[in-house]
C-alpha cells in the first residue's frame, strides 16, 4: 500500500508515526511545501526567548531520521492539486521547477491554516509580521535585538498574540495589544482571570486596547510607524505582529472534496472526507467538542495529533473513531500560569448550553507552607450544567503551576462526570505537593452548596 501524507506539522507527523507503528512496510511519501519538516509554531516563544537555542531544534523530526525509518520525505515539494478519480496528486518541485504526478492508495492531508490578514490600508508596509512558521520565527528573532525597534504593536490577544507581547516586553520594548474583543484572552478565560492578567501586562510595559480593531497602518519611507484603531487611537509601532486568527488553507480544494461555508473540510468521525480514500486532519478541520457532542473550531496541536493518529489507523483498514476533545490549553503570562478546558461563561453562548459556575480561591499547598517555599494563591472556576450537574469546563490560575488540574477536568468532561462525582473524588495529599482537599474538590464541594 502507498500512503501519501501532505503537511508535516503536528497532524502529518502523527499520521506518519502511526503508520510506521502499525505497518512499517507501508510505502510512505511525506510532502512539505516549505524547506523544513515538522516545525512547531507552539514552541516559537521558547526559541524567541532563547530557552531553545537553535530554530531547527523546534521540531520532532528530521528528514535523515525519517529516511532511515523508510519514509520518503519531500521538502519544498508542493501538492497543488488532487485527482480523486485517478487516485493521484500533482506535485510541484520548488527545488528545480519540475512537475510530476504521484499515485496513492490512501491520501492524508493536513493543509493547515494561514494567518488571517486584516485587509486594511497600509498592510503592505514593511515590518508587519506574522507569528507562525519557521521563516517568521527567524525574522522575529532578529527583531528582538534590533535597536531600531522600541515600540511593538500586537494585533490580537489570543495565545499567539500574548506570547508575542511577552517576548518583546522581555526584550525591553514597549508593547501595545489591540484586540477586537473587550478582554484579552477572552476565548480562553473569564473576567476574574483576565482582569488580573491585564494588570500584570500593564506592570510589564504592555498596554491593552480592547473593544477596537485596526482601521489603518501608517508609515514613513515604506516602513510602518503607527497603528490607527477604530476608536481613533494612534499607537506608535516600529514593528507590528498580526495575530488576529487563522483561515483554513483550503481554497485549492474547492472542487475536490466537500467544504463548509467557512472553508473547513468536512470529514467524518474516521477522518474520511467526501472522497473515502482521502482523510483530512489538522487546523483545516472541525473536531468533536466533548461538552456538547457537536463539532467546533478548536485549532490546537493536541487535536491535530489525535486526528493524525486516527486518520492513519483508518487508512490502514482499522476502525477508530476520533475521540471527543475538551479544548484544553495552558499558557503563562509572566509570573502567572493558567489553563482552561471546556466551556467558559464567556463562550457558553456559542454553544447554546445552560451553565452555572463556582469560583474559589485557596492556596496551592496547606496554609502553613510559606509562599517562598512554593505556596501561592490559586484561582479556580468550575462550570457545570445547573439542571444535570454535569461538568462542562474549568479554569485555573496561579503563580504556582496548577495547570495539570485542567487535564483532570477535561477527563471529567469526557466521562460525563457530575459535580457530585468530583466533590469527593480521590486525589493524593502530601504537604510538599498539594492540599488535603485538592482545589478541584474544594470547587466542587462549593458548587454543591451553590446548587442548593
UniProtKB/TrEMBL annotation:
Organism name: Apilactobacillus apisilvae
Record family assignment: Belongs to the class-III pyridine nucleotide-disulfide oxidoreductase family.
Coiled-coil positions: none
Protein name: FAD-dependent oxidoreductase
Source organism, top-level taxon: Bacteria
Range of residues in the leader sequence: none
Keyword Signal annotated: no
Cofactor: FAD
Domain Pyridine nucleotide-disulphide oxidoreductase dimerisation: 332-434
InterPro entries given in the database record: FAD-bd_OxRdtase, FAD/NAD-bd_sf, FAD/NAD-binding_dom, FAD/NAD-linked_Rdtase_dimer_sf, Pyr_nucl-diS_OxRdtase_dimer
Cross-referenced Pfam families: Pyr_redox_2 (PF07992), Pyr_redox_dim (PF02852)
Keyword terms: FAD, Flavoprotein, Oxidation, Oxidoreductase, Redox-active center
Amino acid at each position: 500500500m502507498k500512503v501519501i501524507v501532505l503537511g508535516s506539522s503536528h497532524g502529518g507527523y502523527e499520521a506518519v508515526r502511526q503508520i510506521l507503528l502499525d505497518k512499517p512496510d507501508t510505502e510512505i511519501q511525506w510532502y512539505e511545501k516549505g524547506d523544513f519538516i515538522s516545525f512547531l509554531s507552539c514552541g516559537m516563544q521558547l526559541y524567541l526567548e532563547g530557552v531553545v537555542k537553535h530554530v531547527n531544534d523546534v521540531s520532532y523530526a528530521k528528514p535523515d531520521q525519517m529516511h532511515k525509518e523508510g519514509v520518503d520525505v519531500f521538502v519544498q515539494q508542493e501538492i497543488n492539486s488532487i485527482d480523486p478519480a485517478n487516485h493521484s496528486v500533482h506535485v510541484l518541485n520548488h527545488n528545480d521547477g519540475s512537475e510530476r504526478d504521484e499515485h496513492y492508495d490512501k491520501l492524508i492531508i493536513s493543509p493547515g491554516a494561514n494567518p488571517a490578514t486584516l485587509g486594511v490600508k497600509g498592510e503592505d508596509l514593511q515590518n508587519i509580521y506574522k507569528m507562525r512558521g519557521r521563516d517568521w520565527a527567524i525574522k522575529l528573532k532578529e527583531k528582538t535585538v534590533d535597536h531600531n525597534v522600541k515600540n511593538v504593536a500586537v494585533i490580537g490577544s489570543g495565545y499567539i498574540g500574548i506570547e508575542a507581547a511577552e517576548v518583546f516586553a522581555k526584550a525591553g520594548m514597549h508593547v501595545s495589544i489591540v484586540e477586537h474583543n473587550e478582554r484579552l484572552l477572552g476565548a480562553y478565560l473569564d473576567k476574574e482571570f483576565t482582569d488580573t492578567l491585564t494588570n500584570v501586562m500593564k506592570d510589564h510595559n504592555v498596554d491593552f486596547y480592547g473593544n477596537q480593531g485596526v482601521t489603518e497602518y501608517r508609515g514613513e519611507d515604506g516602513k510602518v510607524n503607527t497603528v490607527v484603531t477604530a476608536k481613533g487611537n494612534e499607537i506608535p509601532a516600529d514593528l507590528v505582529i498580526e495575530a488576529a486568527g487563522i483561515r483554513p488553507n483550503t481554497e485549492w480544494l474547492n472542487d475536490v472534496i466537500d467544504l463548509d461555508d467557512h472553508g473547513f473540510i468536512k470529514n467524518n468521525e474516521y477522518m474520511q472526507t467526501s472522497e473515502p480514500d482521502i482523510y483530512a486532519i489538522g487546523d483545516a478541520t472541525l473536531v468533536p467538542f466533548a461538552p456538547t457532542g457537536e463539532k467546533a473550531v478548536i485549532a490546537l496541536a493536541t487535536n491535530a495529533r489525535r486526528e493524525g493518529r486516527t486518520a492513519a489507523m483508518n487508512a490502514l483498514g482499522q476502525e477508530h473513531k476520533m475521540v471527543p476533545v475538551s479544548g484544553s490549553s495552558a499558557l503563562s503570562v509572566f509570573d502567572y500560569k493558567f489553563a482552561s478546558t471546556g466551556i467558559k461563561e464567556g463562550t457558553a453562548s456559542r454553544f447554546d448550553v445552560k451553565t452555572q459556575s463556582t469560583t474559589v480561591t485557596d492556596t496551592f499547598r496547606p496554609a502553613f507552607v510559606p509562599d517562598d517555599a512554593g505556596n501561592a494563591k490559586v484561582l479556580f472556576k468550575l462550570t457545570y450544567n445547573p439542571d444535570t450537574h454535569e461538568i462542562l469546563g474549568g479554569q485555573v490560575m496561579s503563580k504556582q503551576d496548577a495547570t495539570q488540574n485542567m487535564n483532570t477536568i477535561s477527563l471529567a468532561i469526557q466521562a460525563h462526570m457530575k459535580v457530585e462525582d468530583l466533590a469527593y473524588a480521590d486525589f493524593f495529599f502530601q504537604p510538599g505537593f498539594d492540599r488535603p482537599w485538592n482545589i478541584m474538590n474544594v470547587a466542587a464541594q462549593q458548587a454543591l452548596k451553590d446548587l442548593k
